[in-house]
Amino acid sequence: MSRLPPDLVIEVGGQKIDAHKAVLAEKSDYFKARLSRDTLKVKGVSYKTMSTLIDYVYTSQMNVCKGNVVEVITGAKILQIPCAVEAAMDSMSKQITAENCYEILTIILKDPAAYGRPPSRCGSRPQSPLSVGSLEENHMIHCFNETANDWRPLTAMPEDINTKGCGICTMYNYLFVAGGIKGYGDKGKVSDKVFCYNPITNRWAEVRPLTQARAQLKLVSMDGYLYAIGGECLFTVEKYDPRMDRWTAVAPLPKGAFAVAHEATTCSGELYVSGGSLFYRLLKYDAKRDEWQECPFNNSRKKSTDMVAFKSFIYRFDVNREHGITVFKYNSIVKMWHDCASQRLGSHLPFRCAVIGNCIYCVNKSQTLQFVVEEENAFFVEEALSSPVEAKGVLFPFVLTLPEKPEKCT
Length: 410
Description:
Neuraminidase, four-stranded antiparallel beta sheet, 6 helices, Kelch repeat and BTB (POZ) domain containing 11, kelch repeat
């Protein structure tokens, strides 16, 4: 392919790079979505970084050092080349010695975009354990053993966590639980507390509280920040910087929108929230502009059971006791909804979702369904997995990487 004449000119930093559309599209959803263009202006990436990434796409050789690793990983995320992120991290890990480990670690931690190891489309699927928290009656977290097809207790949440109406998400392999309400009715007290769980040390810690107490909020991680969205009687939104241990206000939800969101997820570096009562809406938050934008909503007017993202698509799951499960997908690049899949047989109760590799796990107290997403197809696996038999309340699945032999905590 590289022997054919280039059919794409990339303009970056006032300079030009010739390339082949097909070669870049194979590794990058960013270039794949722009195949119709012959000239492409790229912002947010330097010429030097772009050259490094283009060389990697053509040669599979990653040329990074402590001087450019942050820029290369950030650029790879902007251009949606997850395997380049993986290659850069692997290359840096091979360069670490006892003499320079602190210096390299400090350089990487300066930029949140350098954190994490996203699933690579160039390698095998990550084998991250699936965990589930039982919200409300039981402060227990269970983890799923795929080999044995069973759920096992992992850890208990601190009693100070108000699991009813709280927000929960993961970031950098930490679990965060924020807000919630303690008690019922007029005696219920809304919380501003935020807790963080480290699965490597099996320890919980309390971090900086929210600037506003929130219940029924949505908690989402994006680009190294946590976002606490809305809540009962609240249209405000705030974000948490773990490096500064600080919450700051960002643009509130638009006037006339919903305070209590149905679902929230991130896709291609943007935050999406759905909600509403008589009229359901999909909103997108642009962090660079600090503003909310209206997105097209699909024809379904039902409240979805969950909404998750995989690559550049958002998958919305609707559950109906009589008609089964209907899945819709939203292309965040062309901004269009499509019917995706359905399952009519079996008992269908509402569930929550978590993504590992190309599989979306749909978890409730009766079963765990697997929804597999392939390049040209998406389907439910016929045989359901088990569910946590001891769990009570509402289940909320999430993904953490656990140590092979967890350390005992005293």
